[in-house]
Design brief:
The chain has 4 helices and 7 strands; from the N terminus they run ββααβββαββα. With 125 residues, the protein is α+β, with helices and mostly antiparallel strands.
C-alpha cells in the first residue's frame, strides 16, 4: 500500500502483513514527528532507531536515515521493495518505509529483547 503525505511531501509504503492491515498510515504520520530523544533505543553509522508506540499493544522500531542523492534514493526504494518480501525467522521484519525531502524512515518489527549486539556484548556504559 502506498500513501502520499501532502503536508510534508513524503511517501509512505506499508507492506502487506497481518499486523499492518489493522493499522492506518495516519497513525504513523501523526506520531512520527513527535519522536524525541526519550524514544531512542539505538543508534549507529546509518541512523538513529526510535521506539514508536502506536497504542498500548502495538509498537515498532523506526530507523531514521539522512537522505542522499536522488539516484541513491531511487535505489533505496527499489531495495526496500525487495526487502518487504523477505520473511525469515532470523531476520527482523520490515513493515514499511517513509521517504520525505530531508530523511527516510524504515519501519521494523520491534524486538522486545533488544539488539543482537547488546545480547552478545552487553550495553555500553
Amino acid at each position: 500500500m502506498v500513501y502520499e503525505d501532502g503536508f510534508s511531501g513524503g511517501k509512505m509504503v506499508m507492506f502487506r502483513s497481518p499486523m499492518m492491515q489493522s493499522l492506518k498510515s495516519d497513525a504513523f504520520l501523526k506520531k512520527t514527528p513527535k519522536l524525541s530523544n526519550k524514544d531512542i533505543i539505538g543508534s549507529g553509522g546509518f541512523g538513529t532507531v526510535y521506539r514508536l508506540t502506536i497504542n498500548e499493544s502495538t509498537a515498532f522500531a523506526v530507523k531514521r536515515l539522512s537522505r542522499g542523492t536522488a539516484d541513491r534514493d531511487r535505489g533505496f526504494e527499489r531495495e526496500l521493495e525487495a526487502m518487504g518480501d523477505i520473511k525469515h525467522r532470523n531476520i527482523v521484519t520490515l513493515h514499511g518505509y517513509y521517504t520525505a525531502p530531508h530523511y527516510n524512515l524504515l519501519i521494523y518489527e520491534l524486538m522486545p529483547n533488544g539488539s543482537l549486539d547488546t545480547f552478545l556484548h552487553g550495553m555500553l556504559v
